Amino acid sequence: MTAALGRFLILASVFVCAAGSMIGFAAGKKRSLDGLQMARRFAYGFAVLMILATGVMEFALLTHDFSVGYVAQVGSREVPTWVTIVSLWSSLEGSILFWGLVLGLYIAGATWLTRSQHVDYMPYAIGTWLGCATFFSFLIAGPANPFVSVPAAPDGPGPNPLLQNHMLMIIHPPFLYLGYVGMTIPFGFACAALLRGRLGHSFLRPLRASLMLPWIFLTIAIMLGGWWAYEVLGWGGYWAWDPVENASLLPWLTATAALHSAVVMERRGVLKGWTVTLVQASFLLTILGTFMTRSGVFNSVHSFTQSSIGPAILVFLAAALVFSVVLLALRVDSLESEGKLESPISREGMFLVNNLFFVLLTFTILIGTIFPLAVEAFNGKQMSVGRPYFDSMVVPVGTALLFLIGVGPALPWGRTTRQQAIRSLLLPFTSGVAVALIGFAAGARNPWTLVTLLFGGYAAWVTFVEMSRGGPRVLRRGRRRIGAYIVHAGAVIVFVAIAVSSTMRTSTEVRLKPNRQSTIARFAVTSKGKAVTTLEPRMNQYAAMREPIGTPDVHSTLTHDLYLSIMNIDPGNQTVSVMMLITPMVSWIWIAVLMMGVGGVVALVPRRQRVVRQALQEDIVPA
Which of 413, 505, 403 is closest to 451 using CA atoms? Predict the structure, then answer.
């Protein structure tokens, strides 16, 4: 009964999405207000159906209804209730259902917030959103159906042990979904602007806001994923250029570039086509990331196992790519610029250079990620592109971006004289030199680390000066500006913390002979004869897995982390191999990325202003 109800709700969502999408596009072409109202109702209907379907699945999980295929796959009477609840996204079919839920909530929210605005754009936007929802409803109803009926069993194996092994795996997936799925909304707005043939200043606000929100979630999700890898996997790092790690970084890079481009468009009336292109690229890269995670093609600790939905996602990616490219080719010229870039040595000029570096970084990472797969597809030979490639290619570009964080805000808008440029750019170098000298005195010798400290000090000076400019008045009327500089401050700290933690850590591996064999090793940490803390790295054994899962223990301070991880237990020799790492400034990565998220939230809050309600556009007539 439960499985049948779930299947009915999902099949109904397929119909609602497909019908609503066609109605939306037809309403946009005919400029019909009645059609727009109907498309909105279908958008709300999709959200309701996905909420009900997810509720049915959670009910099946909580009541241990093992006649439902997904419950039989991940359910268990032995796990705590909280594990049962979050097991919704612990495996492939449930994760796609959760994707549909998040997508429904996003579409309903965006439709509601624009219910009395932008009526000339919204039919196309809703049509695009529901078109994407049609595909994911089809996935849930077909290749990734969690409501398959199976013979009831007395119990199940429980969810993936990795989900139970650390609390971060409970938080990380929802944030990642809120980031990935949320990119659908600005994609719909961008397509609507192209289909309508204009991108007005007023419509830029929902486009920018709808991009900022998933950007915030994706920023925090990337940090949580790195934090989880650092705390759980036991190799002492937080980023390994894994294909699935890269999959989350790629849309973040293009979305960041799009947000910067939107600022230039708002201030100078240029880069409209470029902004729309970056927004579309961000959505397409989230679909590519979904393929990387769920197709089983890429071997990664972060990915799901081999599944049948990979080809379907690849077909949808190809269709969305063709749709976007054709739309850009036919309509991008209609998004006429209202101004021009007066000088390359200006704030908008540096924004453009910043965008080019973000795109270069995206292509560099994308090529390194998919090149091994392409070689295997054509030649049948397996190869890998590892850290040496990514470090050699990414580090210089990332360092240049750090420098631009300082240079861009230091320059004025519009044409800049030579004297203005020298005065704006020269003074902050004193701060950069001071920070680099402090790093050198502290033991930094790696050239790229010293350059990062130099540029980081430079950017920090500019960021502080710009944040304080305007006094208390800025806090009342310039929340977007303050939020942006909070993000910049967090980004500067991230760059510096990554550089220092990657090049200045010390590593020691020792062999111990404990009094008894145990899966938990307890260490009393002292400093100068005084007790600091107790660390307990451990090996966790789950019934569903042959090999134990190691859980490191970490003592974190603002200056460094002490990281202990059990590498091997040798019962024959009665020894335990333990890796000890002292890594400086790792905590600042988590703190700084949270600062970036807070800055994004601050920038997202609209300033108070008098809103003049205007009549609907004259070219919108009832059907």
Answer: 403
